[in-house]
Amino acid sequence: MSIEPTPTGSLAADRPKAVSAPYLEITGLWKSYADFVALRDISLSISKGEFICFLGPSGCGKTTLLRAIAGLDLQSQGKIEQAGRNISTLPASRRDYGIVFQSYALFPNLTIEQNIAFGLENTRRSKAEIAARVGELLDTVGLAAQSKKYPAQLSGGQQQRIALARAIAISPGLLLLDEPLSALDAKVRVHLRHEIKALQRKLGVTTIMVTHDQEEALAMADRIVVMNHGVIEQVGSPTEIYRHPATLFVADFIGETNQFAAKILADGEVEIGHSAFRCRTEGFSTGQTTTAVVRPVDIIPHGADAHAVNAVDRPVTPQNLIDAEVREMEFLGMFWRTRLTAPRLGERTLVADFSVNAVRRLNIETGGVIQVEIPSDRLLLFPRSA
């Protein structure tokens, strides 16, 4: 697959960008089961070639939405369009997609090559064309040497690759993945998620994957659709979702958080545990109670006298600097997770993740006292729930 170079220079910069219609357009979609509403007014646009992850806890509606797109469980109301074609009421057999289920659903009595060829046999291709396509796909997923084996003779990761090959055999316009990696062990999952993403980019197929694994979504998706209780909480790139969560649910579900009851003191200042901290307070009024959130990874460790150190290393004294005692340390391989107590935060424990190098350089140890900085731009505020 060749990639055309992007034009450079003033003419290209001045040229207006072409706006293409969404490849998949979901509008006002609802799904109810008797008195239970599984999906509530879902609207979403997906561009051609995008890799989208539906992410959320069990029961949030992500699989129900995928099944509605596939025509396996029709919506109660709403419209779904694919490539400008209204597919809202079409049966699954008349929709243009390939799907990989959580269980892979391979035919145990068919060889690997027969599994892949199964969907091709109804496309009026000759046996030679089918054999060539199967061989091409086996090469693509790196399992050409396993073609005569049966699914039970393959590892879970190999079965997943065959299920992918079968799903893309007919070159569908849309690839649907229903938690395809959840049955695999952690190391294999990490390896295969890179393979799936590389294959998706190579094929350019629009892909939707359902997952409850935040790390998986952050690593693979072009955009993430975070769902909760049948509604979409936020849609954005992995960076946007992680760094700029739209709601407290998104902040808490994506990654780890520290949460504190807080009150707005003035513009750019909030009270936590009887102490003032700097942060962005736009959208809140003085005296309003909020929930302040900071991620453990955003907390910056300093030495015993950070003011003296930063007078040399940094021209500006760090804001939100607090003294803290290290109560617990947990080694997690690439970093240390620490639990700190600080008088300025009251009785609450502050969880902070420090790199192995920082722990070694600053001689951080259980029982020791350090200073930590809570960057003002990483201290986020959300409306306090009742």
The CATH architecture name of the largest domain reads 3-Layer(aba) Sandwich
**What name goes with the CATH superfamily of the largest domain?**
P-loop containing nucleotide triphosphate hydrolases
The chain-level structural class is alpha+beta
Number of β-strand runs: 20
Fraction of residues in helices? 25-40%
What fraction strand?
Answer: 25-35%
CATH class placement of the largest domain:
Alpha Beta
Q: What is the count of distinct domains?
A: 2
Distance from first to last alpha carbon: 54 Å
Q: Ranges with pLDDT <50 over ≥5 residues? A: 1-18, 308-316
Biggest beta-sheet profile = 6 strands, mixed
Overall 3D shape:
globular
Strand order of the largest sheet: 6-7-8-3-9-10
Radius of gyration: 26 Å
| Quaternary organization | single chain
Distinct helical segment count: 11
Q: Could you name the CATH topology of the largest domain?
A: Rossmann fold
User: Mean pLDDT, nearest integer?
Assistant: 89
